[in-house]
Amino acid sequence: MATFASLPLRGALPPDLGVQNHTSPAAATATPSFKPTFASLPLSVQTWAVQMVVFHAVGLLFELMDRLHLFPSTKVRRTRKSQYTHLLPTVLRNQILLLLPSMYACELAGLAFVGGSLHPLRFLANLPLMALGHEIVQYCGHRYLLHAPSVWLMQLLRHSVHHSTRASSAISACYMSAVDFFIEIVCPYLLPLAAVGGGGGGAAFHFLVAGAGAVGGLYEHSGYDFATLFRPAFENVGEKPLSPAEKEAAYKQIEEEERGPIRKFVTAWLADFLDNRAHLEHHTRGYVSFSDGFGSPGILDTLLRTRWDLSERRRADVEREWARQRQ
Length: 327
Ligand SMILES: [Zn+2]
Ligand SMILES: [Zn+2]
Prior knowledge:
Layout: H1 25-29, H2 43-68, H3 84-108, H4 120-146, H5 151-157, H6 160-163, H7 178-195, H8 203-220, H9 244-257, H10 261-273, H11 277-284, H12 299-303, H13 312-325
Helix pairs in contact: 2-3, 2-8, 3-7, 4-7
Residues 142, 146-147, 159, 163, 282, 286 line the site of one zinc ion (ZN).
């Protein structure tokens, strides 16, 4: 693995380096000292560092919420005791020994993190393209490799390590075997990044993508579903399913109780945006929702009919399972 000492430094050297000092012979013979700063590190390393800070700060926040039993009505999946210290060593191994070298290798190969800053329009266009590319790579690897019905592949890739966490602790987002981490985390991040041209050499785009990815992964594995605060109660997991007629009457009543179109729109948008059920369902049933549950367009799950709530039969199964787990 490359060490920081061997990494090429970004930016111009200080202007006094290499300039002979004519007024002081002693100074002229002294070895110039250059202290590397954060900004002088390769952009891939800076991005990785930012992602680590975001991931572990937000991960600790979720852990604190677990330990202090905050927002109990939104914690839809629990474990009897904290998994944090058990998960952390594997998470750090994956992030340090796999993610960091892969990102740096992309920069060295000129595939990403190089060039000038992105034009604002390119910056904006790259974000949905990255989301779509991420979904395609993740869906294919996750469904057709990690969940392939092949015993030898299952033994080789050991996706069961990740599923053993049941998505009830935020940092379990990166708790997986090394090869699983490469398929589920490294490739869906770096392949689309290279495909959209590498994201340029400006820090803002990379920090945003890496930081948002970290928060999304943590949330969808946290066992919290903040959408429960905005969703009609009968739509929440664990509630007794209503018949279609009862549902229609309940929606009508809600509509009548709404105080205005803006509130109605905001509530519906938040319930949709924060909906965290897809990946939680995937951890319960391996045959649904192979895309990321949060922040993913979910296009392939919809097109290929693997979305968790797409079929009534699937949904009925899932709702029965949720009700059983919450007893
Ligand atoms: Zn997961
Ligand atoms: Zn899986």
